[in-house]
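> tool_call: predict_assembly(chains=two)
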Amino acid sequence: MSGSAERAVMPPPTDPAIDTDLLLELRFFAKADRLKLIRPAILAAARMSGFDEQLGHDIVLAVDEACQNIIIHGYQGRSDQRIALAAFRLSDGMELQLRDTAPTIDPATIRPRDLDHIRPGGLGTHFIQEVMDDIAFQPAPDGVGNLLSLTKRLPRPT
Amino acid sequence: MSAAQKHVIALSGDVDLEHAAKTRQMLLDAIDGTTDLLVDLSAVTYIDSSGIASLVEALQAAKNIGTTLGLVALSTQALRVFELARLDKVFSIFPDMPTAMSD
């Protein structure tokens, strides 16, 4: 990995207010067996952000599926490439950022599967959209790769 | 269908992308065309879209040859994933093995 690509894996957060609530940063190779390492950390970060167990597990699933999309579609199985995960606690929830150095994707091409047709596969994007409140592909700061932001808001008190 | 004609296999641990190929093959191998299949999920600690996909494929394979596939003893988390996938009404889901066997 070149120096520029190395830096690109985790850009500095652009919002100083969010930066103060950085809970964790992790970098890992784009391999299926690495996802079990990040799931407990995401769950702990969700709890620390105020989410209950069920919503915490929902968030873990959404982030795991987003990582799978990067592994399968972004890097297309090239397991020597890296994914960077950052979790931020927000005043009303949490934001998770996933950064890769895969070819830039067009968000307009990403569609969940049609749930009316039962068939294997294609569920991951549906899970992400079902669980998260805001999903944004942000411009990569240096034009390398993709930066996906997933935000989940805390339920309003009843 | 009597209890004697039901075959049970158990999945355990993380039924995820890492184990997707093995899970899929194990399920498809268990569908033999003569017995209904019950999949015990009581020891599953995590399931993702790839695990769900393997079960959907197995369900379709079972249906195609005239047998059934039921899911048994899902954890709250696993059931939640099926609900998110809107597949909780597509599969026959049983709370425990005695209930599944007597169905």
